[in-house]
Structure of 5'-deoxynucleotidase:
Amino acid sequence: MADDTAYAEGTAGFIFEMGVLKNAKRTGWWFTGNNNPESIAEHSFRVGVIGAVLAMMEGVDPAKVALMCLFHDTQETRIGDIPHIGRRYLDAAANETVTEDQVSAAHPAVRDGVRRVVGEYEAKETRESVVARDADKLECLVQAVEYRAQGYALVQDWIDTSLSSLRTDSARELAEAALTMSPLEWRRTFLNR
């Protein structure tokens, strides 16, 4: 019984920690003049949706990809959202190391499951991990297109680097479509029925 209580508290602590991502901002957007960018949680939500969509298009397991996407930035509760330019000057712990600490007191099934998901994402070896990483980059591109439409002109570097890092045909196809349409195109499609 004591183990059950400790595991429940450790797992609940992990859940509370994940709530930090709702308030932690994606700091790279500050370079574009955006003082109130999306949160890490907002980013991760759409990465999960994009990941599932890309997985369907690529013929891999959408649930597995969405799960990887959900956990891909959870380490940022401990190390923050370090912009790419800042990574040159910092020696942060590996995401697997951070994850290990985050789930160390959680229920064994949770501990093993989260470690496995993060490990697969970080290893970059499976088709699902490639799709999940494309989802992360595609979400950044889509967010940059939205910010550009809102008047933030300095987003082209985010678009270019995201586009150049996409590895799947489906992600490149969706990126090209996103670059040629308004972020509100979906409204027009619905309203024209």
About this structure: Residues 2-191 form a domain with the Hypothetical protein af1432 fold (CATH 1.10.3210.10). The mean pLDDT is 95.
